[in-house]
Amino acid sequence: MWTPWRIVGETLLCAVLGLLAAMIEAFSGGGIVRIVAVALAAALLSPLRRVLPATVLLVTATGMAEFDSLTPLILIAAWSAGRRIDGVGRAAGTFAAAYVLSLGLTLLKETLPSLLTLAIAAPLLLVMMVVPGLISRYWSQRRTLTDTLREYNAQQLRERTMIAGQARMRERQRIAQDMHDSLGHQLTLIAVHAGALEVDRELTGQQREAVGVLREASVAAMHELREVVGLLRDGTEGPGQRAASHALQPVEEEPTVPSRGVAGIESLVEASRTAGAAVELRRSGEPCALAPTADHAAYRVAQEGLTNAHKHAPGAVITIELRYEPDALVVEVANGPAAEATGIGRSVVSGGQGLTGLGERTRLIGGMVHAGPTPDGGFRLAGVLPYTSPERGVPSISPGAAGTAFADPAGGSREQPPTGFPEEGVPVIDGSALPKELAKAMSRKKRSGIAIGCGIAALIFVLVPVVAMGVGALFLAGESDQARIGPQLYDEVKVGQSEAQVRAKLPERKSFLTDGLDKSAPPEPEGAECLTLMSNETSSEWDKQPVFRFCFKGGKLIEKKSFEVSN
């Protein structure tokens, strides 16, 4: 995205590159046309490197063979191409083509390209093109990986906060469910007892009034309980709680150890009978031990069924049936229509939270629950509770247990899904695999790192021999200057001149290249000291080397001779 600051920075960069190109071209002795053309080319190619990095790099590498003033631009173009060319293969191909093209045009520019020109141009172009591209590509991949890791960390923090919030909400719902199941049942029994006493003909008016106050108090208590339960279930967090949730570590929810189970259902029946309700308890099948959570859920199903019957169908006959199936316990509470209108059902509060909480409770242990009206106008609540808890494997509910009495009226079956509810502390993202973006960035980083390592290794293996060749070429060039002279200098030297005058015109020191040249030379004058040098000219025969020999004696040049020796 082009921000104002980026536009200003890009404009300044274009101006600086154009100015540098013009200055270098002026110092090289170029004309006004070349200076203006090079400055405009540098200024125009600079912004294009963002959208056409490979093209700008190739064009700049081609032009640099003719215009040395494009050298600053090639550094910027190589840096940009290393960052922006997608794919390691494409980037390597582009840089290789630019390097070979620039080196080839540089050598073709020379009239007589020599080993010294190659030794200087090859490493110089390598440093100007390849090195900036490798560095920029590594920096770009490192920044991409860092940004991806930062985003992944932020996502993990958001998920951690969300999981902590879910853990708090589940705990609030559990507390609300326990309050509803225990206190709601007891308050309902109080209201039923008070309603029964209120219609007793043996009570006096004052006693009947006191009983009415008791019933109204129980109804008011149920109203308050409903508000508290609703607040716990649907309450929202305040700013302080939201801030604290960032530091909350999700923990494993401890399983609730029920204080009552199937054995406590009989006490519920007795309490309801004491209140005047007609309750029948039936058992069938071979009793089997249940997990603690399933045992508690069976008690809650019976308790919820009795509570609903007392609330909405006072005086109706209630039947509780416990059927031990081969793989699950079926708890069914059914009641007929209300026998009489006492006013209790109209005054009792019903928040609809009991059945919802009961369905969640049975779902968590791998079972299912169904509630609905019966054909005779009554109501039936039933739950299927497996003997084995979900932690040890969720059993399959037999078709006989699920199909006889638990088909949803809408046509579906409210059965527990194969996977249980995720426990607290389990992240939303699968911990065994990284996110797709992070894995892609790390894979790209790995491939780029391998490519950069190979590039650096290739750079070392290419650069070191080239530098060694360059140093050797420079040394040989220096030695060649000390071992050769031209025919013009040979003609200038005259026999009879002093040794000092002659040696002042000849090379200063002896070179190892002249060793062995006098092996096939004519005999030297007796008592003379001779100096043999190679000629700059080549012989007409490929195996011959023209040489010049100067012989000194008594401080004077007594002989000079030109001849050819075998290579």
Q: Helices and strands in order, then pairings?
A:
Blueprint: H1 4-27, H2 32-48, H3 53-64, H4 71-84, H5 88-109, H6 115-198, H7 205-234, H8 239-245, H9 265-274, E1 279-284, H10 292-312, E2 318-324, E3 328-335, H11 344-347, H12 353-364, E4 368-373, E5 379-386, H13 399-405, H14 436-483, E6 484-485, H15 487-492, H16 499-505, E7 529-535, E8 544-553, E9 556-566
Parallel strand pairs: 1-2, 6-7
Antiparallel strand pairs: 2-3, 3-5, 4-5, 7-8, 8-9
Q: What descriptive keywords fit this protein?
A:
single chain; 567 residues; alpha+beta; five-stranded mixed beta sheet; four-stranded mixed beta sheet; 9 strands; rod-shaped
Explain what you see.
The chain is α+β, with helices and mostly antiparallel strands. It has 16 helices and nine strands. It has helices at residues 4-27, 32-48, 53-64, 71-84, 88-109, 115-198, 205-234, 239-245, 265-274, 292-312, 344-347, 353-364, 399-405, 436-483, 487-492, 499-505; strands spanning 279-284, 318-324, 328-335, 368-373, 379-386, 484-485, 529-535, 544-553, 556-566. The strands form two sheets. The chain has a five-stranded mixed sheet, with helices on both faces. Helix 4 packs parallel to helix 6 (115-198) and helix 6 (115-198) crosses helix 10.
Number of strands: 9
Helix content: 55-70%
Radius of gyration: 50 Å
What is the helix/strand order? Answer: HHHHHHHHHEHEEHHEEHHEHHEEE
| Class by alpha and beta content | alpha+beta
Our estimate of the beta-strand percent is 5-15%
Distance between the termini: 69 Å
Assembly annotation:
single chain
Query: Largest sheet, if any?
Result: 5 strands, mixed
What count of helical segments does DSSP give?
16
Strand numbers in spatial order across the main sheet: 1-2-3-5-4
- The shape, in one word, is rod-shaped
> Mean pLDDT score, rounded?
75
Uncertain segments of ≥5 residues (pLDDT<50)? 236-259, 342-349, 391-433
